[in-house]
Structure formats: structure tokens, C-alpha cells
Amino acid sequence: MKAAVIVFPGSNCDRDVAVALHQASGTAPAMIWHGESALPDLDLVVLPGGFSYGDYLRVGAIAALSPIMAAVRAHAERGGAVFAVCNGFQMACEAGLLPGALMNNAAGKYVCRHVAMRVETADSPFTSGYASGQRVSIPVAHHDGNYFADDATLDRLEGEGLVAFRYDNDNPNGSRRDIAGILSANRRVLGMMPHPERAADPALGGMDGAALFTSMVETLS
Amino acid sequence: MPVLPADPVTREPEIVFETEDVGPMQARVFVTLKNGVLDPQGKAIEQALKGLGHDGVEKVRQGKMFEIELADMDADSARERLKMMCERLLANTVIENYRIEIGGQDAS
């Protein structure tokens, strides 16, 4: 699998996700600085977690206008896969790759702990290694994970089976309809707040996120 | 750039920029959360105000205000530019509204 992780000023999960990809695929992904304007031929682009640009203005808003993002958008428009975690999910929403927005957590607090989630669909390149309805425990670490979209958008997401993950009676941020992760209409872009790369090695205290990486390697290579 | 006086015969008035007479154009952009969108920071501030003894506080919503100095341009162009800035960056219209003031007049 030809994968690249985009590195923004303030990214801090870029290496973690690179390690998880490397372990799953046997190949290290390219690390591409956000200031670049072109991408090589790729099967997967990763927008990693972190605090790009110090969360100035709105989370992900400045990163969404980084030079590389035009190439990321073009990659997605060609049907290329994009895996957007945490701050990456926030960027993907700001860049229009996914609908909705991530707002302050309802309790006004930063939350850093394992959460119980349900895999809502196995029908995507990212979740094919899970069973629909499977319960998993994956860590979150965010202050702005409160997914918001209007009712019509939420109805469409649910109607088309584009909700990938939902918090399972364990919503840490007040997100609408307990949404933890969503897919784009073509199912090739996944945005999620929890960090599967932090649950993909036994040394990290959990393996529930590992199937996400093996799914991508199997379906996108 | 010096301001050339408009020649009523040879020059169209719309291409005259009264730059140095007016100075840079001032604008203010107010970005606020839409009704119904949860505002935990506003809520915390509301509680803190009540803690100070301000019983009359019914509700607080927090927003942002941007002061922008624009190079010289006519008010219509400024209004269009500022709208584009709001739509592309200053506001996220999924969750926020914006209001533009140019030179003290409301242009939303």
C-alpha cells in the first residue's frame, strides 16, 4: 500500500499513525510536509491528530487551507482514500471532505480516556475487518470532538449507512446522535475522533484499533 | 499612490480611488454561533457572572470579532471581499453566523 501521512505544524500523532501503518503493511508511509503542493501516486492519505496551528480560529480551519490540501482534495475527488483522525477529522470537515463540524466538548473539558464504541458499518475500506455492530474500546483525546450537523445531514448520513462509529452509551463529548466517525458519500474518506493508532499494539494496552489498519492494507493495496 | 483628480471628460468616476483622502478602509466582522448550537464557553461565562452576583444574567453566548484594515477600495468591493473571507475562513457556516460592518455602517 502506498500511503502518506501529512505533517502539519502542531501535528503530534503523525508518527504514531505511521508506526501503526508500518506494522500493518510492512512499509513505512511517506511523511509529507503540509507546505508541499503535490502528492505522489498514493492509495491512502492520512490526516493525523494533533493541534495544527495551535487550534487558532477554529480547530482544523487553518490547516484546511494549507498548500497540500488542494492536492488532498483532488486525491479524494479522484476516489482516493483519506483516513482522518481527530484533528484530521476536524480538518476534513473544514476542508469540505466530510459534512458537519466538530465543536467544543459539551462538558467544556478535554477528555482523554478509552471509550466504548460500536462499529456501525463494515462496508468501507477502513472497517471491513470488523463486524457491523462489533463493540470496541479505543482512546479519545480531544477538546473539540462534539460532532454537529443539521438534522437533514444526519438523516442522510444514517440513511446511506455513512455513520462508521458510534459511542456505545459512552459519549465523551456530546456529539449529535453519539457519532464518533463518519464516511464520505463514496465511502472513501473516513473521519473519526478516537485514535485507533493508540490501540494497535499490545504494548499500548489494547488492540481494538488494529483491524482498521489491516483493513486498509487489504482493501487499498 | 497619489490620487489623481477625476477628469469629468476623460475619466469614468468609478475608477477613481479616493485613497489618501480616506485612508485604509476599516471593517469589523462579528462571528457568532447559530441559535441552537451548544456554547459550553458561553455557559461557563454565564455561570461565572452569576457567581459574581449578577442575578439578572439570563444567557451568555460567546462570539468573535475581527478588526480588518483593507487596502483602499470602494465599499461594494470591500463588502464582497469580506463576505468571501467569512465564507472561506472567518466563519464556519455550518455552525456560525457572521455580520460585517464597514466604516461603522452595518453591511450584513
Beta content of chain B: 15-25%
E-strand count of chain A: 11
Total number of strands of chain B: 4
Shape of chain B: elongated
CATH architecture of chain A: 3-Layer(aba) Sandwich
- At the fold tier of CATH, the topology name of chain A is Rossmann fold
Strand order, largest beta sheet of chain A? 2-1-3-4-11-10-9-6-7
- Biggest pleated sheet of chain A: 9 strands, mixed
Q: Between the first and last Cα atoms of chain A, what is the distance in angstroms? A: 4 Å
Strand proportion of chain A, as a percent range, falls in 15-25%
How are strands sequenced across the largest beta sheet of chain B?
Answer: 2-1-3-4
Number of domains of chain A: 1
- Domain count of chain B: 1
Indicate the percent of residues in helices of chain B: 25-40%
Low-confidence stretches of chain A: none
**What's the CATH topology label of chain B?**
Mth169, Chain: A
Second CATH tier, the architecture of chain B: 2-Layer Sandwich
Q: So, the CATH homologous superfamily of chain B?
A: Phosphoribosylformylglycinamidine synthase subunit PurS
Report on this structure.
The complex is a heterodimer of chains A (221) and B (108). By secondary structure, chain A is α/β, with parallel strands linked by helices. Chain A has a single domain, classed as Class I glutamine amidotransferase (GATase) domain (Rossmann fold). Chain A is built from 5 helices and 11 strands. In chain A, the strands form 2 sheets. Chain A has a 9-stranded mixed β-sheet, sandwiched between helices. In chain A, helix 2 links the parallel strand 3 and strand 4. Chain A starts with a strand and ends with a helix. Chain B has 3 helices and 4 strands. Chain B has helices spanning 19-22, 40-51, 75-90; strands at 25-33, 63-70, 96-102, 105-106. In chain B, a hairpin with a 2-residue loop joins strand 3 (96-102) and strand 4. The interface between A and B is medium-sized, with 20 and 13 residues.
